[in-house]
Amino acid sequence: MTTAVDIRGVTKTFGSGAAAVHAFGPADLAIENGEFVSLLGPSGCGKSTLMLMIAGLLPPSEGEICVNQDKVTRPRTDIGIMFQDNTLVPWRHVEGNIALQLELRGLDPGVYRSKIADLLKSVRLEGFERRMPYELSGGMQQRATFCQALVHEPQTVLLDEPLRSEERRVG
Fold first, then answer.
1. What is the pLDDT of residues 54-69, one digit of tens each?
2. Residues 38-49 as b or e (16 or more Cβ within 10 Å = b)
């Protein structure tokens, strides 16, 4: 097996001096192609920070991250990401939100029309293609966001609390 994600001596600190906040690490981790890895820990321990660093959306303070043997130095378009909160834009319907991920990568959404339909069917959102995000339940929005992460067929998918339930306060 080859290494899909290689993390060596990675730390992340926000700020500097007396105001510095140590957010993550140091950590070493090798994830092989085909592996499914879950990171568990309390809120604020750095799980989301690590995901952002792997995706190239946040640079590590120290250490090195490689994805498919390439050092991560910029945002990666070959990774699918599902953030904690859905990333659906309110002015696009479900299908348009999924297509947006393709547009941002310079891909022709028309070529992926059947892929989008297959993804929506696989998460039981068939028939909701033209619905706006506000017309969907929270769980349906999460499933549409999951389709966004998968539509460009990435080799690596990062899911940040994909099964998170919404907090509800009564009274």
1. 999 999 999 999 999 9
2. eeeeeeeebbbb
